[in-house]
């Protein structure tokens, strides 16, 4: 699945809806046993949640958007397929979450590319299921420090921390992703799928059990004037950076 929503593959409601539909089609296709996620936008894997979906909109819109974000994560983290992220660009916040939610992460070894859950830098808080996914990948200590500081890690640092599994030169990315996929698909599906489910079930169940509460927390948090102000300032900063 190649993300192609220029300029930065931000995760808008439309993007997320298409992502979920695409994933469901693949999940229902018996001939498809694995998916590689990558980007068709140069230098960007995904810039994370589309901030304009969380700024200046109605409470109803925030609730609809957040349910879609939850749905995307539930489908991807709970997927029966082998999922490989071929990270060929920067991947902050929600973009990093997509990578973390996959079974394996390969990143291009470009010192300019960054990845991480930088929510704290925007004055927002990564929800518990982002945190759980992060902890399950890198362990509690690394996740705690990285989340509190809202760190964006270079590709080499992300590799050292275990946030990504492998680094490759850009030209080798697709070949490496295909080789990893072949290695994972060599196992019997039922054994791999049951093992994956056993490892991820508690974290998935936790969101399913608290889904509406999580939507309400998000809506209350994001609609606070202080949070709206932080997000507006962040968007202005992104725009000014260009000039
Ligand atoms: C109690 C429960 C509480 C729950 C709280 C909420 C939890 C929310 C969880 C997740 C949050 C997120 O995912 S927020 C998104 C975080 N993303 C970022 O911080 C990345 C921001 N973007 C960048 O750093 C850079 O754009 C880039 C490194 C990704 C690319 O840099 P580049 O120089 O190539 O491009 P530009 O910066 O010039 O950007 C081009 C264009 O795109 C706009 N843009 C960028 N990112 C976003 C985004 N995430 N959403 C919307 N729009 C974005 C940027 O403003 C530029 O627009 P213009 O061309 O109009 O200027």
UniProtKB/TrEMBL annotation:
One of its GO terms (biological process) is fatty acid beta-oxidation. It comes from Athene cunicularia (Burrowing owl). InterPro entries: ClpP/crotonase-like_dom_sf (IPR029045), Enoyl-CoA_hyd/isom_CS (IPR018376), Enoyl-CoA_hydra/iso (IPR001753). This is Enoyl-CoA delta isomerase 1, mitochondrial. Pfam families: ECH_1. It is found in: Mitochondrion matrix. It is an enzyme of class 5 (isomerase). Homotrimer. Its EC number is 5.3.3.8. Belongs to the enoyl-CoA hydratase/isomerase family. Key enzyme of fatty acid beta-oxidation. Able to isomerize both 3-cis (3Z) and 3-trans (3E) double bonds into the 2-trans (2E) form in a range of enoyl-CoA species, with a preference for (3Z)-enoyl-CoAs over (3E)-enoyl-CoAs. The catalytic efficiency of this enzyme is not affected by the fatty acyl chain length. SUPFAM superfamilies: ClpP/crotonase (SSF52096). It catalyses: (2E)-tetradecenoyl-CoA = (3Z)-tetradecenoyl-CoA; a (3E)-enoyl-CoA = a 4-saturated (2E)-enoyl-CoA; (3Z)-hexenoyl-CoA = (2E)-hexenoyl-CoA; (3Z)-decenoyl-CoA = (2E)-decenoyl-CoA. One of its GO terms (cellular component) is mitochondrial matrix. One of its GO terms (molecular function) is delta(3)-delta(2)-enoyl-CoA isomerase activity. Keywords: Acetylation, Fatty acid metabolism, Isomerase, Lipid metabolism, Mitochondrion, Transit peptide. Pathway: Lipid metabolism; fatty acid beta-oxidation.
């Amino acid at each position: 699945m190649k993300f192609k929503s220029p300029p930065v593959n931000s995760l808008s409601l439309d993007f997320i809806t298409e992502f979920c539909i695409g994933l469901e089609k693949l999940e229902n296709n018996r001939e498809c046993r694995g998916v590689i996620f990558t980007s068709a936008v140069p230098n960007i894997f995904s810039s994370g949640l589309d901030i304009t979906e969380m700024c200046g909109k109605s409470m109803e819109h925030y609730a609809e958007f957040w349910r879609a974000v939850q749905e995307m994560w539930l489908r991807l983290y709970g997927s029966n397929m082998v999922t490989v992220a071929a990270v060929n660009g920067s991947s902050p916040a929600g973009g990093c979450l997509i990578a973390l939610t996959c079974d394996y992460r390969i990143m291009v070894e470009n010192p300019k590319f960054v990845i991480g859950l930088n929510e704290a830098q925007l004055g927002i808080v990564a929800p518990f299921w982002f945190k759980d996914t992060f902890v399950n990948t890198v362990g509690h200590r690394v996740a705690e420090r990285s989340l509190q500081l809202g760190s964006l890690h270079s590709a080499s640092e992300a590799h050292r921390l275990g946030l990504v599994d492998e680094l490759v030169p850009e030209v080798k990315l697709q070949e490496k992703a295909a080789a990893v996929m072949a290695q994972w698909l060599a196992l019997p599906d039922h054994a791999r799928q049951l093992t994956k489910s056993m490892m991820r079930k508690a974290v998935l169940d936790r969101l399913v059990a608290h889904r509406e509460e999580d939507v309400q927390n998000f809506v209350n948090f994001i609609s606070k004037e202080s949070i709206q102000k932080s997000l507006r300032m962040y968007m202005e900063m992104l725009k000014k950076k260009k000039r």
